[in-house]
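Treating backbone geometry as a discrete language has practical consequences that deserve illustration. The amino acid sequence and the backbone structure tokens for this protein are reproduced below.
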Amino acid sequence: SKVTFGSMVLGALSTTVDRRNFTVGFNQKVFPWPASVASSDHCTAAASCIGQQTYYSPLNICEDPDCSSFFFMALDHKTRTCVWSLEVQALLVGTI
């Protein structure tokens, strides 16, 4: 016999997706949520990005820019921005 999940069944379940392990889980919903669970007080504060970093909310991390995709650019680890590589800077100073 075949089991088909319809909207009534799925409406009674909460869905959890684990993107890292490529799994999906279902759990019975519990109502009402206690105030302590419904609030965001227990959540980790969002990461604070600097320079050209971008915020990736699913993992709560700041990602560095991909400076290697540009010619003669490198990541400045202190400011987290793309800057001219040291070789190019030396070449420019040498030609002046």
Remarks:
- Residues 86-95 form the longest helix (10 residues).
- The radius of gyration is 24 Å.
- The chain has three helices and six strands.
- Helices lie at 7-11, 35-38, 86-95.
